[in-house]
Specification:
- By secondary structure, the chain is of the alpha/beta class.
- It has twelve helices and 16 strands.
- It has a nine-stranded mixed sheet, with helices on both faces. A five-stranded mixed sheet has the order 2-1-3-4-5, sandwiched between helices. A two-stranded antiparallel ribbon has the order 7-14.
- Helix 3 runs parallel beside helix 4.
- The longest helix is centred in the first third of the chain and has 18 residues.
């Protein structure tokens, strides 16, 4: 029989979950920094300050909360979703700010794996006489900052593959018609997903067939559109495409092979397009991991991959899909329709990529299932 939780533990988890809710507000607009939330609670149990990482990565969450609390921060408990930074960057260390403000206790979800921090923030707090409790709501905090953690530990961003298909897993008819398989509510949810990611990624096939905008077009969200990335190793994207024509308004990057001729780059650059050159692999196309590493080098931590079937298959084959967001429409197209994933060489069931269902919900007339990669 499990022993009942202590009152302090229950209170800590309650306040930390509020801090995690605040942290989520920063997803998609704080890269390359982590999305952090902070809540300051006075000795009487009242919340005296709240903050979250602001667009562009600063001010940090702790700074926001301390500014709000003012002198009330003295003697308070700081609930922070990620270990406070301990290094001097463009802003002073948050650990020192908490110490200077007179915080008496620090409750932290997870340690920051960044080499410049990695335990030093918590150590600074302890050396200043502040009681530190590390590990509260750790699983939830790791999920929120999975992209930042992967960026710091593996040098690549988190990859979420989003798709909209029929019940039989088709994303278009055999003629290529795909708009719209799912309904308006599902498309609205898709725009919200875009807002919480640093970049949207598509392959050149999708870009050529759909001529997409890849922006957040829900009311009031136009300024939240993430970076748009097209994997186009041979530079086939037309200058007349919506992506090129709007590149000065919404950042647009094209991933090309380093062996692709650069003669036309200036034509695209005139519209604001930026190029990321990646060395080709054995098949003359850049390897998936190399592409992700190149995007991580630009600071991206969270990618939303929206197609098509060939790019999805490449990422699956490489074992680089971390999450799935699968919208299913209640209809069927049949075997001659275009599948969600192109063939990627699965000969044995042991080679199949496996995922764990996390949520399933009704979105209008459609269903949204979310998965994470199985360990």
């Amino acid at each position: 029989m499990n022993s009942p939780k202590k009152p302090t533990e229950v209170v800590d988890r309650r306040h930390m979950r509020v801090a995690l809710t605040l942290a989520r507000r920063g997803l998609g607009n704080v890269w390359p920094n982590p999305a952090v939330g902070c809540v300051l609670v006075g000795a009487d149990g009242s919340v005296v300050g709240r903050g979250w990482t602001q667009p562009g990565g600063r001010p940090h969450a702790e700074t926001q909360a301390l500014d709000q609390a003012g002198p009330k921060a003295k003697g308070s408990t700081a609930y922070v979703t990620l270990e406070p930074c301990s290094h001097h960057g463009k802003t002073p260390p948050c650990a020192e700010a908490l110490i200077t403000a007179g915080v008496s206790r620090g409750v932290i979800s997870i340690e920051d794996p960044d080499d410049r921090v990695s335990g030093r923030g918590a150590t600074l707090l302890r050396e200043a006489g502040i009681d530190v409790n590390l590990g509260v709501c750790a699983d939830e905090a790791e999920a929120v900052n999975a992209g930042f953690l992967l960026h710091r530990t593996q040098g690549r961003p988190l990859v979420t593959l989003k798709t909209a298909s029929t019940l039989d897993g088709r994303i278009a008819t055999h003629s290529g018609q795909s708009q719209w398989i799912t309904g308006a509510a599902a498309r609205q949810r898709g725009h919200l997903m875009r807002k919480t990611h640093d970049a949207i990624v598509v392959g050149i096939g999708t870009a050529l067939v759909d001529d997409p905008e890849l922006t957040c077009r829900s009311p009031g969200m136009a300024q939240d559109s993430p970076v748009r990335v097209v994997v186009d190793t041979r530079l086939q994207l037309p200058l007349e495409s919506k992506l090129v024509q709007t590149a000065k308004t919404v950042p647009t990057w094209i991933v090309v092979s380093s062996e692709t001729t650069t003669e036309r780059h200036n034509e695209y650059a005139a519209f604001g397009v930026e190029f990321i050159e990646v060395a080709p692999g054995s098949d003359q196309h850049p390897e998936a991991l190399s592409v992700l590493q190149a995007l991580a080098a630009r600071g991206l931590t969270r990618l939303l991959v929206e197609g098509g079937s060939a790019l999805s298959a490449v990422l699956l084959r490489a074992g680089l899909v971390d999450r799935l967001a699968w919208f299913r429409a209640p209809g069927a197209i049949g075997g001659d329709g275009i599948p969600v994933f192109a063939a990627y060489g699965v000969d044995q069931l042991s080679d199949m990529r496996r995922f764990v269902l996390e949520t399933s919900e009704r979105v209008g007339n459609d269903t949204l299932e979310t998965y994470r990669a199985a360990d």
